[in-house]
Amino acid sequence: MSTSGQELYAVADFCLIPMGTGEPSVGPYIAECHRVLQKSGLTFKMHGYGTNLEGPWDDVCAAIRDCHLAVHGQGAPRIATDIRIGTRTDKTLAPGSGNAGKLARVQEILAADKP
Amino acid sequence: MSTSGQELYAVADFCLIPMGTGEPSVGPYIAECHRVLQKSGLTFKMHGYGTNLEGPWDDVCAAIRDCHLAVHGQGAPRIATDIRIGTRTDKTLAPGSGNAGKLARVQEILAADKP
Amino acid sequence: MSTSGQELYAVADFCLIPMGTGEPSVGPYIAECHRVLQKSGLTFKMHGYGTNLEGPWDDVCAAIRDCHLAVHGQGAPRIATDIRIGTRTDKTLAPGSGNAGKLARVQEILAADKP
Amino acid sequence: MSTSGQELYAVADFCLIPMGTGEPSVGPYIAECHRVLQKSGLTFKMHGYGTNLEGPWDDVCAAIRDCHLAVHGQGAPRIATDIRIGTRTDKTLAPGSGNAGKLARVQEILAADKP
């Protein structure tokens, strides 16, 4: 396979958990991830239990890696992240439209329920 | 342990994936989950790659189980779900405030970045 | 739906992460989960990044809940767990055979690769 | 940050789910992932609900990307993967020892339970 990873578009979501920090709160670490993602130029959106993120596969993985590096830089000795990542070949997504499009499609179906 | 599961409050997020459906689209299945969650009475909010959900541990698990049953009922022969679920003993959350509170805390920290 | 949750068989895997513990190591907490699972009577098997677990849906969820309770009891103020959970209606699994069967099927396919 | 991603060692686990395939079975797709991972040179081990995988962060992400490409090549129009990925700065792991070491540590603790 000669694909560079720039050719495969990934629609993802991740939840990063700092470990061994001595305090249960994680807000400052997640805020730092937000700053890292902003510099990445990728489309992202935080929610209550993670962050939607999308772009070329390699860029998405590099952005999450940079979040790990930044959170280690804040003093967290260990980090565990859960990533959900999806790709598809049946249609081409306009850049940045993947997660928003999925949500809109469900809302459209539900809107038809209303009498 | 005599805890009934009503005593442990869970803040969660889940992403349900129908398998073997013969079509890559999942919108109608996720819409059906939305209807199931609405009947559950639990606090929930959909995003681009899953659904925030919270309540007593057993109720959260029962609601996701009912989503599986409903999606099987729609014809999906197999389902794989990813659940992120968190509990804490260091503070008591007002019911329904868990996921929203986490997001608000990060936004508050980020707001202080602005000059 | 009148299904009690005893009727839906779940094949799962979970990874429990204690937070705010002040030390990056989690071995003692995961060992405690192993003891809890042993008492549950469910089929389970630990691996390097989680534990395979299966049984009736409600029992699986109750077992993971009891792991949370036990780990809080060990002093972890916060816990975040990632659960992968699957159900299927296209075939009936012999109790306890779900995860092992999936692995065996892949190994069987790979065995046919050998010249 | 100038880290190339070769400097950050990642201990991971992933579960890849082909979607829209018209059949609930996934064995042939997972077998193909096994072949891809074998070519990657990374340390990996399949279990009942995913595959342990470890190495430099970028290599781990590239290997999972190559699994997606191979499974799309087999005809799956859509794929959803769940990745658990961990990094730590408090100790240096011997390459390939991360997941096995975590499991061994828990087994060591449990062995001390025996009378």
Automatic annotation (TrEMBL), chains A, B, C, D:
Lineage: superkingdom: Eukaryota
Domain Thiamine-binding protein: residue ranges: 12-93
Cellular component, GO annotation: cytosol
InterPro entries: MTH1187/YkoF-like, Thiamine_BP, UPF0045_domain
Name of a matching Pfam family: Thiamine_BP
Alphabetical list of NCBIfam families matching this protein: MTH1187 family thiamine-binding protein
Family: Belongs to the UPF0045 family.
Name of this protein: Thiamine-binding protein domain-containing protein
